[in-house]
Design goal:
By secondary structure, the protein is of the alpha+beta class. It folds into 2 domains: 67 residues, Serum Albumin, Chain A, Domain 1 (Orthogonal Bundle), CATH 1.10.246.40; 118 residues, no CATH class. It has 7 helices and 4 strands; from the N terminus they run H-H-H-H-H-E-E-E-E-H-H. Strands 1, 2, 3 and 4 form a 4-stranded antiparallel beta sheet that branches. The protein is globular, with a radius of gyration of 21 Å.
Amino acid sequence: MQDKTSSSEAAWQQELCAAALPDKRLVRRLPRLLDQLSAAPGKPIPAACGDWAAAKAAYRFFDNPRVTEHSVLAGHFAATAARLAANEGPILILQDTTEFIYSRAQPGKIGFTKTINAGRYKAGQPNVLTLCGVLMHSSLAVILTGTPLGLTAVKFWTRTKFKGTLALKRHINPTRVPIETKESYRWLENLRHRARGRARALCACG
């Protein structure tokens, strides 16, 4: 009898196989890469991959313009939509934003997340630090008992394009700015993405 661990791994691999990557080589690389990274959490890519050839392949995968978060997660989104359609009870969609902060000499090459007040220098001047990194807004579907059904939407971005928004508020009434141009629009985008996924699942399973 197959144990629960191997069964869950098989389901995980099955969702990966449904990724919408445009090349079979990319499809084969994805589960191998995730196995390496999940076995060494917190380690840099060369250490997690074990040798330079595997690390170089990982860097090529991440640098491929045809590899996007949506193509990688397509299989998982489809599986989540099927689980939503099969569940008859109430479903909660929990949304939140996570910040991935990195230390870089040139933060502009990654993107900005926010500025923080780090106190004052000895001379009394304020010490304001600019943090760089990536933001992720995700929507997780769960049933009332707390069991997760999977992600329904994920959006990654940096705040480079929203630079100067606070200064703009001093001159423009925020209520007159179109919601599509605001960073908070991500909440509506994720809800719409989830609604489309559920509709597709209902059509497929009905």
